[in-house]
Amino acid sequence: MSETPQPAPNRWRVLALWLAGIALVGTAGALLAPSQPAPDRGRGAEPVELGVELQAPVVAARAIPNLAGLPEASTFSTIPAAPQDATADEVPDGQLVNPTVPVPVYDQPGGAAIAVLQTTQLGSDTWVPVIVEEPGWVQVLLPSRPNGSTGWLSTQDNTLTIKWTTDRVVIDRAAFRLTLYRDHQQIGTWSVGVGTAAAPTPAGRTFVLASMTDAKQKFSPVIFPLGIHSTTFSTYGGGPGTTGIRGWPTTDVFGRPSSDGCIRVPADALATFTNPIDPVPIGTPVLIR
After folding, report:
1. What domains can be seen in the chain, in order of their start residue?
2. pTM score of the predicted model
3. Does the pLDDT value for residue 31 go beyond 80?
4. Rounded CA gap, 277 and 275, in Å?
């Protein structure tokens, strides 16, 4: 049986339908696309995800009517409930906060109060480094035991003053070297003495807690207590075993393990730290590795 021949398709009609299809797809794409320029995917540009950034809600701080019932977060105290520093090998970015009045320290945003942070530490204004920031809250390093203690402060009122420093102190125990950075530039580096094997200088990130003088000794005109403690001595010389940066009258202690945990530095290092024009500020982050 013979088949009925079909007419050949009209090439101009096919072309017209094809062009109309392209126009329809383009119109639909324009209707569905967001009202913003298409991302440039040429020249190796990364794909752009389109979406809405959601702001996390602010968790309210619990009211603490009686701060006197809380232990002080200081170099003299131990705060067992304090969260531990999760990234102790990184230098904080330089944001510092100072309580203008005594403020509660919380174990987490909206959590329980575990301590009170006073306005001064060892005669200096309290400045502590921020290590994490969330809406309405900052997590800071504390000067208390155990080493690596942190806590959360509420920023939902006017009780904190905030400032920034670009100063950083890095202490390399294996190389017996202290280096001061400012604006990512090396300001000075010195050979120093560190703790012996029996009384090592503790490792971790901490901060300059205070600047103080001690009339009982003459070899260091100024001492910089840090927010970290000896892991050997629970007390030392009647104090809480605070590790510090201090001077020494002889040079034979530098470049080797020679202390009970403190960092012994030469006179020109102390002079740089106490430069009256541009001193190292209280709260400056310190990384001991």
Report:
1. 167-288 (2.40.440.10)
2. 0.81
3. no
4. 5
Question: What DSSP string runs through the chain?
Answer: -PPPPPPPP-HHHHHHHHHHHHHHHHHHHHHHS-SSPPP--STTPPP-----PPPPPPPPPPP-S-GGGSPB-STT-B-TTSPBPS-TTS---SEEEEESS-EEEESSTTS-EEEEE-SEETTEE--EEEEEEETTEEEEE-SSBTTTBEEEEE-SSS-EEEEE---EEEEETTTTEEEEEETTEEEEEEE-BEE-SSSPPPPEEEEB---B--TT-SS-S-EEEEEEE-SS-S-BTTB--EEEEEE-S-STTTTSEEESSSEEE-HHHHHHHT-SSSPPPTT-EEEE-
Burial annotation 191-222 (CB, 10 A radius, 16+ → b, else e): bbbbbeeebbbbbbbbbbbbbeeeeeeeebee
- The full DSSP string for 206-265 is EEB---B--TT-SS-S-EEEEEEE-SS-S-BTTB--EEEEEE-S-STTTTSEEESSSEEE
> What's the CA gap between 147 and 201, in Å, rounded?
12
242 or 55, which is more confident: 242
pLDDT tens per residue across span 158-187: 999 999 999 999 999 999 999 999 999 999
Nearest to 169 by CA among 190, 154, 148, 150: 190
Amino acid 52: pLDDT = 52
pLDDT band at 243 (very low <50, low <70, confident <90, very high): very high
